[in-house]
Structures are given as structure tokens and as C-alpha cells.
Amino acid sequence: MTLTVKLPEPIERKLDAHCRQHHVTKSEVVTRVLAQYLALQAPKRTPYELALKHGIIGCVSGGARNIGRDHSRLIKEKLRAKHPG
After folding, report:
1. Confidence band, pLDDT 50/70/90 cuts, at residue 60
2. How far apart, in whole angstroms, are the C-alpha atoms of residue 5 and residue 81?
3. Are residues 13 and 29 in the same domain?
4. For residue 56, what are the domain limits?
């Protein structure tokens, strides 16, 4: 999709300088910024929805016995494994 955007002169100059310095196109910058903006605007998931999505809710038969006691650590490990960084 092609999109035309009217930018104030100061923003256009800063965008040009940024693109030259980082060797990216204006389209790349705008696409990344829009993706971040839209992600922030998305409805937030509840803790229950997140736990369900990551498979940390449910019954376990024959699994480790420390799940109840160590649930915080196990949840953090699971989330870090899915989203390193």
C-alpha cells in the first residue's frame, strides 16, 4: 500500500538525517513506528489470557511437584524463553 504523509519541515529534516545515518528508508522507519504504535493501542490481555496462551494453566499428572511452590520462577522462565531479550 502506498501512503502519502505531509510532514512539517523540521520532522522531515530529522527523518532524512536519521535515514542517512542508519542506512534505512523512510518507508522502513514509518512502517516500524506504525507497527509499534498499533501494538501499543491493541487491547491488553488479562493475566489469565496470557497464562492460557503460554500454556501455564491446567492440570499436570506425573509432573514436577514444585510447580505450586515455584510458580513465579517457572512463569518467568517460560516467558523469557518465548521472548528473549
Report:
1. low
2. 39
3. yes
4. 47-82
